[in-house]
From TrEMBL, chain A:
GO terms for molecular function: succinate-CoA ligase (ADP-forming) activity; succinate-CoA ligase (GDP-forming) activity. InterPro entries: SUCC_ACL_C (IPR005811), Succinyl-CoA_synth-like (IPR016102). Residues 324-475 form the ATP-citrate synthase/succinyl-CoA ligase C-terminal domain. One of its GO terms (cellular component) is cytosol. One of its GO terms (biological process) is tricarboxylic acid cycle. Coiled coil: none annotated. PANTHER family: PROTEIN FDRA, SUCCINYL-COA LIGASE SUBUNIT ALPHA. This is Unannotated protein.
From TrEMBL, chain B:
Pfam families: AllG (PF06545). This is Unannotated protein. InterPro entries: AllG-like, OXTCase_su_AllG_h-dom.
């Protein structure tokens, strides 16, 4: 059987086309892939092909094969070799690249554009990447909610994923994107609408010997009423279909109730079990979520359990609690615990209640938490996980502030974070007569090395914890707040 | 299903270099793009959000790629364009005498003398000053004109047609280099040459073209000349000779030997003769992509010696204007940069269609002529891919492994990358009557593109 295809105006040089003909000719009775020059038209006729009218600028693909299967196989081979040649020509003429879409157009595999340009411009690169069939992670914040919805709708229509905006962390197939820790591979898939929440969960599981398959970030706004979990639903479907994932964990800051409910409905219809760890007054903290995962997997090892006892008692100090955080979710988590236990206002620049708002640059008088990674604190300045200066200065002030009794901090390790976080804090910490409690978020394989950082901080006098929740409880214990 | 989780990752980063470094530290192969803040503000944002854009641009590119250009006739502008006495066409966006540059004025004076509407340059100027002649851009009639691009009713025109759309386009016959009307010269030798072209060359070309059974496929010749060292704007040597090869036998059969000999000598001795066929072929290509709502692809780039104007597919025939820039390059004889007029001519239609400066990599032989080097030429073509919707496989560039010419300038990409289209051009003397002073490289003003994005933004539905 014979099939002939004419591609008007499709040019390829004769040597290349000869190679195509040769490769397509294996296993068929005749194959001609050539420009429709008079010579080639004559050749085609001799081979028994009956051609429609052509011009010398047209490409002829003519195949004679014993059956439909080998015929369509030969056409596939033609396509493959033509593409291969085009790819080769593009590689050899590789250009610098000014947009992610253009740069990745020349590579193979699952494409993802990691966009961290100023927020007002992030939409432009993101929409271009999506239109060029790339997934997108938007690290930038300050993208409008309308733009976020539009991007996610475009992504859904094209079966692509948008992580973010304001997505700090993802791990895809072992590759950390943004701020991510080096954790062992495993079969737990994580979906996180919170960057430091994801980092904390993955590191806790790693300390307990549990690895992860992927960690998909959503951005802090995906579970709002407006965005309605657009990316979350895609992420659930992706992990449900992923052969490396057996158990799915979903972590988030407080979500819009109807969105949380609809996600739980989606999860119920899935093949795989989903454990939800939604922070909030009625939800669970990240350590509790990690423990649920371990329960599900039948793992009893919980290396953080004895930390409070190991920290020893400092005896009740006077004054109030000051939290100085780099991670927003870790700050939220600590405030929720402190609020529950103290039953008094916890003041903050990212307060749990509107009335508890304070100026993060002014002095505090009672329990106060500052998130140094908040958008307003990072305008024209790197994130505190990269630049510790602002937080270290505040630490020195709190050490000398008589109203401050106990200090609680986080130190986050991993890709993207400063290479010397412990070194940068240790001198100031060592001057403190007040107890300083630190949750150290990281793993042994992180570039900063967890054990080394722990030793530096402990030597300076800080009490170092794997679990942010446990560190917060220990700090409250030190203040004499009843359990 | 999305292959994000199942295939190995290919990443590209735009923005913070730290995040790029973090990937490199993991041993992941990644590309950091050369990102810079885009121009165009909210207009660009809104056009990027326009859901019609991506599909409209794909359509515009495919229409360009599927277009054709065959030479169907040669005839006077009075017949071809219905141009009446006292009506002149010119290059670029609309312009009046008072704002016209030296070479444009010189060409208009030459046109007055040639059409016997004035018997001296001074008399011609007096009539032109009083707007005694109706001026209109060539593009408004689907035609194109190199340099000043002045067309008068009795000039002979090539008539080309796009078989895919039926559209036609026209261009005058090329006069050669040096002291010629299109460069603003109007001395007696200029007029005498034009007279001969009207009386002998035009009719002879018509006889040859009409005698052929098949139309000459201009697009196919362009495809071949790109592989023979021409880029179709500043080098048309191979194209000119192939054209002569295809037409000469028919001219010999239809003309007297002395006329044919002079015509053959004239065409063969003018390396730019074929430019005037490349230009209307390019016009047919870009015209095929006109008027697609939402498309941000440029369909016209043209200069009148004062203004640089562009048109886009999504904005119809509206001109977006900025000041014409002065080219940089090499000068003939004792001329210097001070003698050069700002950019002029419709010949940037070649770049609009992906050849000329966009395909500089195809023409290493002329890079020195316009003041460059071979690596510059390769870099220029590679850079142009960044601002184009796609590639034209019909115009394969040999040194780039026959990669297709960068085609379909996208206004949004120009604004996002800050890369302006690269145009190869001749340079006219700024004083009327001078003629050509050199050749070089020029870009459009960015204002034309910021104006275009604003025009596109107002048409979002």
């Amino acid at each position: 059987m014979i099939r002939i295809e004419i591609r008007p105006g499709f040019y390829r040089d004769s040597v290349s086309l000869m190679q195509v003909s040769q490769r397509a000719g294996v296993g068929v009775s005749g194959a001609l892939v050539a420009m429709a020059t008079p010579l080639n038209v004559e050749l085609a006729i001799q081979m028994g092909f009956v051609l429609p009218p052509t011009s010398p600028n047209d490409l002829i693909i003519a195949i004679d094969a014993p059956n439909e299967e080998s015929l369509s196989h030969a056409f596939d081979v033609v396509e493959e070799v033509l593409d291969e040649q085009l790819r080769k020509s593009r590689e050899q003429s590789s250009d610098s690249g000014f947009t992610p879409a253009r740069t990745l157009g020349r590579t193979q595999g699952a494409g993802i554009a990691l966009i961290s340009v100023p927020g007002e411009f992030a939409f432009i690169d993101a929409v271009d990447a999506l239109e060029n069939d790339m997934n997108v992670m938007i690290f930038s914040d300050n993208v409008t909610v309308q733009d976020e919805i539009l991007l996610k709708d475009i992504a859904i229509a094209r079966d692509l994923l948008v992580m973010g905006p304001d997505c700090g962390t993802a791990i895809i197939g072992g590759v950390g994107l943004g701020f991510a820790n080096v954790v062992s591979p495993g079969s737990v898939g994580i979906i996180a609408a919170s960057g430091t929440g994801a980092q904390h969960l993955t590191t806790l599981l790693d300390h307990a010997g549990i690895g992860i398959s992927h960690c998909i970030g959503l951005g802090g706004r995906d579970l709002s009423s407006a965005v309605a979990g657009r990316s979350a639903k895609q992420a659930l479907a992706l992990l449900d279909a992923d052969e490396h994932t057996d158990l799915i964990v979903f972590v988030s800051k407080p979500a819009a109730p109807e969105v949380a409910e609809s996600l739980q409905n989606v999860a119920r219809a899935m093949k795989k079990k989903v454990i939800f760890g939604l922070l909030g007054p009625t939800g669970s903290d990240i350590t509790e979520t990690a423990e649920k995962v371990l329960d599900e997997l039948g793992v009893t090892h919980r290396p953080w359990v004895n930390e409070v006892a190991d920290a020893g008692s400092t005896g009740p100090t006077g004054g109030s609690l000051r939290g100085l955080f780099a991670g927003g979710t870790l700050c939220d988590e600590a405030m929720l615990i402190a609020s529950k236990r103290t039953r008094v206002p916890i003041f903050s620049n990212i307060p749990l209640e509107k009335e508890w708002l304070i100026d993060p640059f002014g002095p505090a008088t009672s329990h106060a938490f500052i998130d140094f990674g908040d958008d307003a604190m990072t305008v024209g300045r790197a994130h505190p996980m990269i630049d510790s200066k602002l937080r270290t200065e505040r630490l020195a002030k709190e050490i000398n502030d008589p109203s401050c009794g106990v200090i609680l901090m986080d130190v986050v390790l991993g890709h993207g974070a400063t290479s010397t976080p412990g070194e940068e804090l240790s001198a100031t910490i060592s001057e403190s007569s007040k107890p300083i409690f630190i949750s150290l978020i990281g793993t042994t394989l992180d570039p900063q090395n967890f054990e080394r950082q722990k030793a530096i901080l402990a030597q300076a006098g800080a009490k170092v914890f794997l679990s942010n929740a446990y560190a917060t409880h220990a700090a409250l214990d030190a203040l004499g707040v009843p359990r | 299903m999305n292959k994000l989780l199942s295939e190995s990752l290919a990443t590209a980063t735009a923005g913070v270099s730290l995040l790029h470094d973090a990937l490199l530290n993991q041993g992941v192969s990644t590309q950091a793009v050369e990102w810079s803040p885009p121009l165009g503000g909210k207009d660009l944002h809104d056009v990027m959000a326009d859901q019609r854009r991506s599909v409209a641009n794909e359509l515009a590119l495919s229409k360009m790629l599927n277009s054709g250009a065959v030479l169907v006739d040669v005839k006077p502008a009075s017949e071809a364009l219905n141009l009446g006495r006292g009506e002149f066409l010119h290059a670029g966006p609309p312009i009046e005498w008072s704002r016209a540059s030296g070479p444009m004025r010189g060409a208009l004076i030459a046109a007055m003398l040639y059409e016997k509407m004035a018997d001296s340059a001074e008399a011609a100027e007096l009539i032109l000053e009083k707007n005694g002649v109706a001026l209109e851009p060539c593009h408004h009639r689907g035609a194109v004109g190199p340099m000043a691009g002045v067309v008068t009713p009795s000039m002979w025109m090539f008539e080309l047609q796009d078989p895919s759309t039926g559209n036609k386009s026209w261009c005058s016959l090329n006069e050669g280099l040096g002291k010629v009307l299109r460069y603003g010269a109007y001395s007696p030798e200029v007029i005498e040459r034009l007279d001969w072209m009207r009386d002998v060359l035009g009719p002879l070309l018509q006889v040859g073209v009409r005698a052929r059974e098949e139309h000459i496929d201009v697009r196919a010749i362009i495809s071949q000349m790109i592989q023979m060292g021409d880029e179709g704007h500043n080098r048309n040597r191979a194209g000119t000779l192939m054209f002569l090869r295809d037409l000469l036998p028919f001219m010999i059969e239809g003309g007297t030997s002395s006329d044919v000999a002079r015509a053959a000598r004239f065409v063969g001795g003018n390396d730019h003769f074929f430019l005037n066929l490349v230009m209307p072929a390019c016009k047919l290509q870009t015209r095929a992509a006109e008027n697609i709502p939402g498309s941000t692809i440029v369909t016209v780039m043209a200069r009148n010696g004062t203004d640089f104007g562009i048109q886009t597919s999504g904005t119809g025939n509206e001109w977006f204007i900025g000041p014409a820039q002065t080219p940089h390059g090499l000068y003939l004889g004792n001329y210097t940069a001070d003698d050069a007029n700002p950019d002029i001519g419709d010949s940037a239609i070649t770049e609009t269609a992906g050849i000329g400066g966009f395909s500089m990599a195809a023409a290493p032989a002329i890079v020195r002529f316009i003041g460059g080097s071979v690596p510059d030429a390769l870099a220029t073509t590679r850079r142009m891919y960044e601002i184009c919707e796609g590639e034209n496989p019909t115009f394969g560039i040999p040194v780039l492994e026959f990669r297709g010419a960068p085609t379909g300038i996208d206004v949004t990409r120009v604004l996002r990358t800050g890369i302006l289209p690269q145009i190869n051009t001749g340079m006219a003397g700024k004083v009327a009557g001078t003629g050509q002073v050199g050749a070089g490289l020029v870009t459009p003003p960015m204002e034309a593109f910021t104006a275009a994005i604003a025009g596109l933004a107002t048409r979002i539905v």
